[in-house]
Amino acid sequence: MAGRRKTNPAGSSNDLRGDVLRVLGVLKVATADQIQRIAAPHLSFRHTDKETPSMRKTARTAAHAGALSDLRKQGLSENGGVTTGGETLRNLTVKGLEAASHELRRPLWEMGGPARGAGSTGAPHPMSVNETVIALLRPRPDVALLAGEPPEALAAAQAAVKSPPGLGNITSYATEVPLPATGTWNAPGRGGAQADLVLTARQDGVPLLFVEVDNCHESAEELADKLEKYARFFQRQVKDTDGQERPMWRTRWPAPGGQLGYDMPHPPVLLVFHRIGARNPDLTVPRLTDLTRHLWQGTWHREDGFHTYDGKIPIIATGLNNLRKHGPTGPVFLRFGRTDMQSLTDAIGNPRKDAAHARAREAQIARQAAAEAEQQRKAEKKAAEREAKRPACAQCGAKFPDTRWKAARRSPEANTHWHPSLCEECESHARIAALQAEQDERERREQEEAAAAAEAARKAGRWLARFRT
Fold this sequence. Notes:
- It is built from 16 helices and 13 strands.
- By secondary structure, the protein is of the alpha+beta class.
- Mean pLDDT is 89; it is low at 1-6.
């Protein structure tokens, strides 16, 4: 124990340090509060007896603060300034990023560089990105770890468990991801973008989602320029390992293709507005919608009743406050070109097309079932007609089996041993009767012949006797 305390003076466990490395490896820079809310959400429902929110926060983040202290002493993390609210910012060192890459099972080149200097101005944008991750992730507390807590704390934890679910886990997210329009993943060239956040949660219906977070400082024109860079990246083709040309993004993120081969939209981009700055997103979004129409507008298929978006970017907008309140399953997402608020999966998808395809599949199944039923009806009618023609035994009336019927058609002429009008059993009896009749006739003839011979002998004897006298 003493040796472990020397290595980890704050007494943190390997699991706690692993939690911190995973969270910071994804977020790049975060507070102990954000790390705790992601890695151990059950702690948010403890220490409810503390007098002030500050004291409660200190108590619930103590374990992760200790882990951060141990990682800092080991050269894996460092303090990176303070937020505008006065909280200490933490980030990983180069050595820490290497350790985090093992925890996240990601190649080191995907980890990016240390987030030094992010906290020099309070890191408002990274903090909004982190809050977006938490709002999408919606970490669920483990109620079993809250045994002995006050009833009101347990009730709050259970309500959190029953609330709408989030997407993926911390390893489903990546931040500050370069999207090179030129250059390589490791050395991006000019003209590319950098995604604030990339989410891959195929198990939750979101195979790939790029997220841009705006603190309401940027104009619609500035945001449109970013989306143009996304378009350049999505359109970029590179040679894959099999020698085939593919969109560059597909060499890193697998995602399902479009349906029926003609609808291959680009990955969706979600804009999350955090109302910190002076710009009103209610005014920014309509202007941005017009500026980017050529990027997102689909083709209307009147006969089918849906749009297709081949080569287009699904662009969706929401507010961070709404996202926090309702989660990704809530109707708080507006896709450019639509008027109704939808859940995230509906907003990034094409429900009308899915419904049309479902109807088409149902109609096809119905047609197939009708064809099979008609075929069955015809088969039954044919079988009934054939059955009506099936001959019956002239003696007992039993229907002929197929083999007997076929033999009777092949040899319709009767003889002593073949009776095409009889079933096999009756034919057997008839054959036996015929044999018996033959036997009887033979015996009758033999008896008649014997009697005739005896009569002839008797008569001959009478003539001989006459000559003797």
